[in-house]
Design goal:
Blueprint lengths: L1 E6 L2 H8 L2 H8 L4 E6 L12 E2 L9 E2 L1 H12 L7 E11 L2 H7 L4 E6 L7 H7 L2 E4 L9 H12 L32 E2 L2 E2 L9 H19 L11 H14 L1
Parallel strand pairs: 1-2, 1-6, 5-6, 5-7
Antiparallel strand pairs: 3-4, 8-9
Helix pairs in contact: 1-6, 3-5, 4-6, 7-8
The structure holds adenine.
């Protein structure tokens, strides 16, 4: 999987991406992250990329030309043009389903804006998708791009050490993740739940499902859909709801 990020802050992307699991995947050759500086495509000696908005108003707007020329340079030799994802609070709200879908692509271009945005004509020419990472406004698209890259990368085969770990977590299914414990068995007088210690895998699985359902019901009842439950899930769910009332 290859990410090419169009940005005014390439170091912010590269420094962050090269640490942690994304960096390891880059070293292993499963992932590639490139950051292209939009400022390299200006034609003025001050390397200004922005100008005042037509019609007036606060802030500055990134000009169409450097963004468009930067994109042309990236796709010049590519037969299939990758999707271009513009990070903006106006976009569709990012979720696990979108991460899974984007992970099917071989290559993605992420476009980061700043100031009051980018001249609409550049967006109309190159952007295929617009993504928001939530209902709040950040100063730029770099952090959102890193969030999207991280979530997409971990869905790509070979990025996580263990291929099952991407699935067995909150938002992959219907429920938030159950609590996890590791050694020691007793910490500050608090014991690990007995069921996790006895090697009874069916009992462990049921305990985990029950804990997942409890925490989901408590924090994100909107994620629960009894219509999609198996018979076993429905039985446990009914017990939890009964105990809750
Ligand atoms: N740029 C600024 N705020 C953003 C957000 N919430 N999501 C995506 N891009 C952004």
């Amino acid at each position: 999987m290859k990410f090419t990020v169009m940005t005014l802050f390439p170091d912010m992307i590269l420094e962050t991406a090269k640490t942690s699991i994304m960096g390891r995947a880059m070293e292993a050759g499963v992932l590639s992250v490139e950051a292209v500086d939009i400022r390299d495509y200006t034609h003025n000696k001050f390397r200004h990329v922005d100008d005042y908005p037509f019609g007036g108003g606060a802030g500055m707007v990134i000009e169409a030309a450097p963004v468009y020329e930067c994109w042309q340079d990236i796709v010049r030799d590519k037969e299939n043009k990758p999707r271009v994802v513009y990070m903006t609070p106006k976009g569709r709200t990012f979720d696990q389903q979108m991460a899974r879908e984007l992970a099917q692509e071989d290559e993605l271009i992420l476009l980061c804006g700043h100031y009051e945005g980018i001249d609409q004509r550049a967006l109309d020419l190159i952007v295929t998708d617009e993504i928001s990472i939530g209902d709040y406004v950040l100063t730029g698209g770099e952090l959102p791009a890193l969030v999207v890259m991280d979530a997409v990368a971990r869905m790509v085969e070979g990025v996580l050490g263990n291929s099952t770990s991407a699935e067995d977590e909150s938002f992959s299914g219907m429920y938030l993740e159950y609590p996890q414990y590791t050694r020691p068995r007793i910490f500050e007088g608090m014991e690990v739940p007995e069921v996790l210690l006895n090697g009874n895998h069916a009992a462990i699985e049921e305990w985990r499902l029950r804990e997942s359902m409890k925490i989901t019901l408590e924090r994100r009842p909107d994620l629960i859909d009894p219509e999609r439950m198996s018979a076993k899930e429905r039985k446990i769910y009914a017990e939890i709801v009964k105990n809750h009332c």
